[in-house]
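Dig into what follows:
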Amino acid sequence: MQSFQTQSLTTEDELWRWTATELAHAIRTGVISSREAVISCLNRIEEVNPTLNALVKVLPEEALAAADEADRALAQGNILGPLHGVPISIKINSDQAGQATTDGVVAFKDNIAAEDGPVAVNLRNSGSVIVGRSNTPAFSYRWVTSNDLHGRTLNPWDLTRTPGGSSGGAASSVASGMTPVAHGNDIGGSVRYPAYTCGIMGLRPTPGRIPSWYGDPDGDQSPAGQFMAVEGPLARSVSDLRLSFAAMSRFHPRETLYAPVPLQGEPLQTPIRVGLLRNVGIAKPSAAVNQALDQAAENLRKAGYVVEEVNLPLFKEAFELWYLLCMMDFKEAMPLVEQYGDEGIKKGVKHFFEVTEEFWGKDPSLSDYIKGYSRRGTLIYKLQEFLQTHPLLLLPVSTEQAFKQDADIESSKGMRQIISTQWSMMSLAVLGFPSVSLPTSIVDGLPVGVQILGRRFREDTLFDAAEIMEAYSTVKTPIDPQ
């Protein structure tokens, strides 16, 4: 890809470092053009993407044409969306007209989307400019982003560590400055964990907030896909999470759970009580994670929140339920995995099923599955009861920092240990409450952070709390690959 030149900006004006909020405001007010912002990000992509392999398809001509259209719209006085002219990326497991929805699978390399999926529709309508497609593991089903079609994505903090998955390409690109925000999706931590490992922020919204649909518009979606899978933004600032969340949250008829709930709710009763949940009996947090939780709790207390240690065993039960409900659904995809999957996904899924067998036996029955969904409802109401008195919950993203590349497929024992550290990834997906993953500090050269959960459809309360913790964070991005 060639370097792009702009006349009005000097080399000191590194727009790729700016937040989406700053870019959107500067474009709207005529301080800069969308073309200038896009050129800056394209040049940054050319600089660091060959090392990180975060964006597996870059779209310079299409992006520059869209940027020029954004600038014309501004000159004509048109109504502008919240991300007008701002460069973004879309994950390769989501439909974008004219692009291959590969999901990291060689056999799907020519699976060209005829039309935009709901996420791409909303992002385009917000005025954003799509500059590229971000990488995933094959079938988007690992916490490592590597596949035989597009290769391996690296973590800019440490190239030997996972950038997370499945939105690892999105997280790596945002952390290194390729785009200020990126699209991701999450059914078992695929937004929150990559954000955590790459030292940025990720939002898992309430199911139904951001429209979603995978594949054929007339195809069928699994129950887990409908009730637990969500779309969400990854960004370097809370203000950018707010902005991109607003842009992505517009109605689309394919979203079966969509609810037209205002993005801003009534103020919470003060003082706001926050539960601090460290351990649910699965894996103890490391010293670094405990320190991050303590730091976040203290920062919230300084702002007037009341933070109290709590015990919520329902999270352990929800964690185990994920392996019943999601893995039984995933069995439907196994013929495709066995026929077209690479060795990484085959080994990873094998270990996932071994853990499922530990919890639910070799062949869970339809009755087990039905009872599992029934129990899910009970756990949801129990958590909702708790959130009446403590409307926010502070907890780990993972109990350890980013693990080594491919540690999840080296052995069944190694995968079992990793799965234990990721208990909140699964439990929150089953329970269906919104959460934000955000960084707090750097320990031994790697970012560490926390997760904050709130009431359904109250993402605004998460942003308010996250802004307080953001003010104290010592993690600064974008960074150059280390």
Remarks:
- Confidence is low (pLDDT under 50) at residues 6-12.
- Residues 143 and 479 are 22 Å apart (CA to CA).
- The first helix runs from residue 20 to 28.
